[in-house]
Structures are given as C-alpha cells and as structure tokens.
Amino acid sequence: MIDFKNMNRRRFMGLAGMTAASSLMLPQFGRPAYGATPLAAVKEEDAVIGFGHVGPISDEGWTWSHHQGLEAVKAAFPKAKYLEVENIPFSADCTRIYRQMVSDGANMIISTSNYGDLIYEVSDRATDVAFMECDGHRKADNLSYYYIQHWFPTYVAGVAAGLLSKTGKLGYVASFPVPAVFCGTNAFLMGARTVNPEATLQTVVINSWFDPQGAKQAGTALIDNGCDFLFGIMDEAAYLQVAQERGVWAAMWNTDIRRYGPDAYVTSIVLDWNQYYVDQVRKRLAGEWTGGEGTLLPMGKGIDRDAWGAKVPAEVAAKADAVRDRILNEGFNPFVGEIKDIDGNVRVKAGETMTPEALYTWDWSIEGVSGLKV
Questions:
Q1: Residue 365 CA: distances (Å) to CA of 57, 99, 149, 250, 343
Q2: Residues 278 and 72 sit within 8 Å (Cβ to Cβ)
Q3: Given the DSSP bridges, would you call strands 130-134 and 108-111 parallel, antiparallel or unpaired?
C-alpha cells in the first residue's frame, strides 16, 4: 500500500534560521557520516544518466520542469548517454524500471518524485550508482534527497491573495493530504492573514496530481461556496480556466501558464532545476559526488514567484514584493509561533521558530484551513 502521507513529491518543503538566499544544504537532522568517500569519477563519454518521472513531460507542470533540467544537463554534457522514463507508477513496476536503468549502465539516477522503498530496493543494491530522490526522506552513501523551499514564495502569494480577495474566502485545489499540501495551504493562509486577519482557506482534495476534470470540478465548487481566489498544487491549468470563466483570481504552481487565464492569473510558484542538476552531474563525473545529503533549493535559486499577472494592481504587487524582499535580503522568516492547529491546540509556542524538519514534514492544518485531513 502506498503511504500518501510520505509520498510528498514536492513536495514542497524551509529553512528556519536560514535566509532564502542562504546555503542550499539542508541541515542534517542527526545524520550519520554518510558519503565520506565520493563515488569514482566517470568520463563524460562513458556516463549514463537516468531520469525517472511521475508524470508526462508534456504536463506543462512538475514533470515538464524536471525535463527542462534534463535538457540543461544534456547541453552541458552532450557526450553522455541519457535514459528518461515518464509516468512511473507507484508499484512494483517502479522498482523494475529503476533496476533496468542500473542494468543499462546508469552511473547516476535522478528520481524526480518520492518513491520511497520502491526505489530504495534498487539503491541499496547498486552501491556504485548515485541516486537522487526529489522530496525523499532517506540518505545513504549513494543516496541523497533534494527539494525546494516552496513555502516562502507561497507566503508571498498569500499576501497578494489577502489584498485581492473581497470575500476573504480563499480556495485551494489539493492533490493529496501530504506535507507539501499542508505546508502550502498553511503558508498561503498565513501570508493572507497578515493583511486580512479574518481570511479563511477551504480545500478540496482530488487525490491526483494531474486530473483536469477533477480540478475543474473542485475549482467550481470552491467558487460556488464563495471563494474569490483559487490556489492549488496541480500539474495542469484546469482551475485557472475556471477562475478565468468565473471572474475570480488564481495563483498556480510549477510553471508560467497564464495563457490559460490571463485575466485571472496572479502568479505561479515557479520551479527551475536546471543549474542544480547540471552541478550534480558535474560532481558525479568529476568524482566529487557524495551521498547522504538533504538539499533545499532556496527562493531565487530554484523556486520563486512568477512575474505578476497583467491585471494585478501595482500596489498589490509592491506590498507582496516588499515581503519577498525581506525574505531574500533580511532573512525574514514568518513561520514563528504562536501557531495553533484547527482544533485550537498550540503547536508552535510563542516566539518559537519552526525548524527545517518541522516545515519539511508539516502534517497538520492551522486555524482557518478547512477540508484537509490525513
């Protein structure tokens, strides 16, 4: 059975006590001394690099962004051989696919989503192959994980939402009840409440990362319930199209897809893996790559807000960007207590800063968020 709570492929994840422009290295939470010895160097012409994706590269979303990273690697190292598999399921087929990559001579395998034990069965046996798992939760001598600090640009988008919403009712189209979604909904509402303390966020979980029909129905239901700003974590533009048709605002995820709703589009939480992937492959070829790392790409270097939509008032953009500037340039971290959950229990005490581990594994909703349960 797949544990969706730990399948947080983004999944989405912050660094308390670090600025968004700080080191890319996630502090190791009591980790052993993994990766003490780098894996052996590989000549570019002998290298085989494998990429495995959860979705289609044509999704214009999550998988497309990782495919762009692969294209950047190909441009940097044209003599290497590349393996790329789309739509890898959460089943034994996943393990077979990664085993085949190893059989095909892969020196480095990059899983652009979290597959947990399905991939660890392979990495544990192929100790001379470098494995990287996006939004993973395990490290070994030949295994590292990486992700993005999505909560910071999401908080900025929340500030804009709080300023733009007339009803104070915000809506969120959720994929699964996973940490990325809990963190995203919480960060979004926290940003909105800095300008509208009465704002609320209603979520609809559709149990898919890519389901245009489900996302359309969810967006419609949220608007029918009074929400005048939609946000979400989908790999397609369905709820943006609904927002365009219904005359409400929307913020998106992954890429710039404003053409599907130019009047409704506020911004997107945009991803850029290109330089990170090039750097990791370069280290692998040079014999400098070590496992046992957990890396979070910071705002401005892997994730950020997109350019504001054409209809966003200049004063709204300026106020939201003032918060972004504080995060980037002053080390502002908004994830400080007191923070209560939906039952009114204090989860983060007054003055206490949420740790990187807490943000990365956030699995509870703050006051004001409804409809999201594990």
A1: 32, 38, 18, 21, 9
A2: yes
A3: parallel
Q: Are 149 and 136 in contact (CB under 8 A)?
A: no
Instruction: Note the pLDDT of residue 26.
Output: 46
Domain map (residue ranges) of the chain: 4-149+272-297, 151-269+305-370
Instruction: Give the residue among 117, 108, 116, 66 at the shortest CA–CA distance from 87.
Output: 66
Residue in 180, 238, 170, 229 with CA at minimum distance from that of residue 203: 170
pLDDT for 210 equals 87
Q: Which residues contact 76 (CB under 8 A, 6 or more apart)?
A: 278, 281, 282
Say how far apart CA 341 and CA 346 lie, in whole Å.
7
Q: What is the pLDDT of residue 12?
A: 34
Rg (CA), the chain: 20
Spell out, as residue ranges, where the chain has pLDDT lower than 70.
1-35, 374
End-to-end CA distance of the chain: 15
Residue 80 near residue 286, CB atoms below 8 Å: no
The architecture that CATH gives domain 151-269+305-370 is: 3-Layer(aba) Sandwich (3.40)
Q: 110 forms bridges with which residues in the sheet? A: 51, 132
Report pTM: 0.89
